[in-house]
Amino acid sequence: MSVRQETTAPAAASGTQPFYGRPFLWLLLALALLAVPAAGAMWRSGMSWSRIHPAINAMLNGSSAVFLIAGFAAIHRRRIAFHRSCMLAAVTVSAIFLASYVARFASTGTHRYAGHGWDRSVYLFILFSHMVLAVVAVPLVVRALMLARRKRFAAHRGVARWLWPIWIYVSLTGVVVYLMLYHVSN
Hints:
The protein is mainly α. The protein has helices spanning 3-14, 23-44, 49-76, 80-108, 118-149, 153-184. The chain contains six helices and no strands. Helix 2 (23-44) runs antiparallel to helix 3 (49-76). The chain is globular and about 50 Å long.
C-alpha cells in the first residue's frame, strides 16, 4: 500500500476528505489570513475604532464577493457541494456585514462625502445604486435559499440568474463606497 493510499484510506472510510482536498476550507483560511492581520495592523497603527470598523465592513463585503465568485465558478463546473458551501458563506458574511453596518450606523451615524467635484456625483450614484440593490437583494437571497433547501433547483436557478449579478454588484460597490468615502475624498 502506498503512502497516498494509507493517508486517504481512513478519510475515505469515514466519508470525509482531508483538509487539503477541501477547497472551501482553503478559501476560508486564505480570507482569515488576509483579514485578521490587516485588522491587527490597523489597530497597532493607532487607527481609532471609528476608522477600523468601516474597514472591517469593507473586508466583509470583499469576502462576500470572493465567496460569490467561487460559488459561481463551482456551479458552472457542477461542483455542487463547493457551490453550496460558498453560497452559505456568502450569506453568512453578508449577514455579519449587515449587523456590523447597523451597529456602526447606530454608533456614529452617517458620514458625508468630503469631495465636491465630479467624484462626488460618481460616489452618490454608486452609493444610491448600492443601497437600492442591497434592499432588492435581501428577499431574493431568502427566496433562493428557501428554494435550494426545498430542492426546487429549477426555480432556484431562475432566482439566482437575477440575484447573482445584483449581489456581486452590491458586494463590490460596498468596497468601492468604503474606498471613496475613507480614502479618495480625504
